[in-house]
């Protein structure tokens, strides 16, 4: 009996599986979508067939097959064992995945569902999370083709206690791509010409696939001409021929160029566009300091704002020309080393001041609108979109210009005479008062220095007397009233007296005559002495003057 009891207990330990463990079972039958499995010790359990199938596949199971299952409970209320194939697979998968994670090995799985922020992946029994950012090296718009497809993954993180596994497909692709890049780059060298496919276009250039490795084709290396956006000459998927400009072996960055495969237009710029030659170009860009004009594809010149117009100063270039406009320009300077051409727009037109000087010589009458009024005069619009200035001193003959400038308004049409044209300084002087002639010149007529004229006394002052001649006022100082100091008294004259005086000065600028009674007396005495004798011959001054007076009679 003791031996039998020992054998019985031993059989119990061997045959009776413990709950919470993975055991082997044999498929007895398949019915109603379930598999009936014998797990030993006369225990049977049922498992849905879907637990034996991989995502997207049918279960490949038949009676007699031996499978591993997880024993959750030895006996339930119906006397059956509670078993699970899925949990068995999970336990088996976790052991396998932990080993792969420790050894940094790849694992195989299949994407079978979409969740917030990513996808779910079946790793042969264990479910892992695949973040959206780890699906591919570039954002994936449609993950449909990847669903249910067995492929390798890299485990980034796992926690068995919490049941969390995070995997990456991108890490596998990057590693594979890095190997491929290294191989491709090893076969490339600077200066080499290769074919590539445009994969992506940005504002600053395009990425070209050279067969497993991407190179950057910068917008400035696409063409010799100005390219505002790469999409002007490239499209995604297009095959292009490019030259390898630079390779960085450390970062695996490749710089590409298209224009380097074409002739450099700057090699013949000086021959095609000699200095002072005129050409038609197209405005490609406008800035605050000027406008860029394309003379031919790849050759642009700058028209500085100071060279745009003869007359429009301090105006934004955009108000003179517009983008894509065709204009005539003159080549002013070429710097081939710096690849710069200076152009002029105004030089293709005649200097309006030269034209005005030819058509309006000094003394020509002009008519124009008052454009501006300043503290020193008027600006009048003239033919050729230029202005002439009427200085305060040229507004009127009488009075002060400051007093009469207030009579003018912007928009008034005035007539004036051209008095001076300075082409270099771009100045035109006009005179409104000249339209009425010069009353001073008219009044003095042929009067010149030394002439004897008769004037009328209009005012007596302590310092002298005021007189008029043909309406022109003059002043004779006390010291010029007589040769004799005793007679230099203003009060000996009366208003209305007419007296003869000698002209000592004619000042057209101040518009005044210099007059003197004293100078007239000295001149008369000198003339009498010369005609009738001198004191040296024995005649007295009285005798001489007497003879002169007698001769006059």
TrEMBL record:
Belongs to the bacterial ribosomal protein bS1 family. GO terms for biological process: translation. Residues 20-86, 104-170, 191-259, 276-346, 363-433, 450-518 form the S1 motif domain. Keywords: Repeat, Ribonucleoprotein, Ribosomal protein, RNA-binding. It comes from the Bacteria. Binds mRNA; thus facilitating recognition of the initiation point. It is needed to translate mRNA with a short Shine-Dalgarno (SD) purine-rich sequence. SUPFAM superfamilies: Nucleic acid-binding proteins. The keyword Ribosomal protein applies. This is 30S ribosomal protein S1. The gene is rpsA. GO terms for molecular function: mRNA binding; structural constituent of ribosome. The keyword ATP-binding does not apply.
């Amino acid at each position: 009996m003791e031996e039998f009891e020992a054998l019985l207990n031993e059989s119990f330990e061997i045959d009776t599986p413990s709950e919470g463990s993975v055991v082997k079972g044999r498929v007895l039958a398949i019915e109603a979508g379930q598999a009936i499995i014998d797990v030993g010790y006369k225990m049977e359990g049922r498992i849905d067939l879907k637990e034996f199938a991989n995502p997207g596949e049918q279960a490949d199971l038949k009676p007699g097959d031996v499978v591993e299952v997880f024993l959750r409970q030895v006996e339930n209320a119906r006397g059956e064992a509670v078993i699970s194939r899925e949990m068995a697979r999970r336990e088996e998968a976790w052991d396998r995945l932990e080993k792969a994670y420790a050894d940094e090995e790849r694992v195989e799985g299949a994407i079978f569902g979409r969740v917030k922020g990513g996808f779910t992946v079946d790793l042969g029994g264990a479910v892992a999370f695949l973040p959206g950012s780890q699906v591919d090296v570039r954002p994936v718009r449609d993950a449909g083709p990847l669903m249910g497809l067995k492929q390798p993954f890299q485990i980034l993180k796992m926690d068995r206690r919490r049941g969390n596994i995070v995997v990456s497909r991108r890490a596998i692709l990057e590693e594979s791509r890095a190997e491929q890049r290294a191989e491709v780059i090893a076969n490339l060298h600077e200066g080499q010409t290769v074919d590539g496919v445009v994969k992506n276009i940005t504002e600053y250039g395009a990425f070209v696939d050279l067969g497993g490795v991407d190179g950057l084709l910068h917008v400035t290396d696409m063409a010799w001409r100005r390219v505002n956006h790469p999409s002007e000459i490239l499209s995604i998927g297009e095959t292009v021929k490019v030259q390898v400009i630079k390779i960085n072996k450390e970062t695996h960055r490749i710089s590409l160029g298209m224009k380097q495969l074409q002739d450099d237009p700057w090699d013949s710029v000086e021959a095609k566009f000699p200095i002072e030659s005129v050409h038609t170009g197209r405005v490609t860009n406008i800035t605050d300091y000027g406008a860029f004009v394309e003379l031919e594809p790849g050759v642009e010149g700058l028209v500085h704002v100071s060279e745009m117009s003869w007359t429009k100063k301090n105006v934004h270039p955009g108000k003179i020309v517009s983008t894509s406009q065709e204009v005539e320009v003159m080549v002013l300077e070429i710097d081939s080393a710096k690849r710069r051409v200076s152009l002029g727009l105004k030089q293709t037109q005649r200097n309006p001041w030269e034209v005005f000087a030819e058509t309006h010589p000094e003394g020509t009458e002009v008519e124009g609108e008052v454009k501006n009024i300043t503290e020193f005069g008027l600006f009048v619009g003239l033919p050729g979109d230029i202005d002439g200035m009427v200085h305060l001193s040229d507004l009127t003959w009488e009075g002060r210009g400051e007093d009469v400038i207030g009579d003018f308004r912007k928009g008034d049409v005035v007539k004036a005479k051209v008095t001076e044209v300075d082409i270099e300084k771009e100045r035109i002087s006009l005179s409104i008062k000249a339209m009425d002639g010069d009353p001073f010149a008219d009044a003095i007529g042929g009067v010149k220095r030394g002439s004897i004229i008769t004037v009328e006394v209009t005012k007596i002052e302590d310092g002298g007397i005021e007189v008029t001649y043909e309406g022109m006022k003059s002043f004779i100082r006390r010291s010029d009233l007589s040769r004799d100091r005793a007679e230099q008294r203003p009060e000996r004259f009366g208003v209305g007296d007419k007296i003869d005086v000698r002209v000592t000065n004619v000042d057209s600028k101040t518009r005044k005559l210099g007059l003197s009674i004293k100078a007239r007396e000295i001149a008369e005495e000198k003339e009498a002495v010369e005609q009738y004798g001198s004191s040296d011959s024995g005649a007295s001054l009285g005798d001489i003057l007497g003879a002169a007076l007698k001769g006059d009679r």
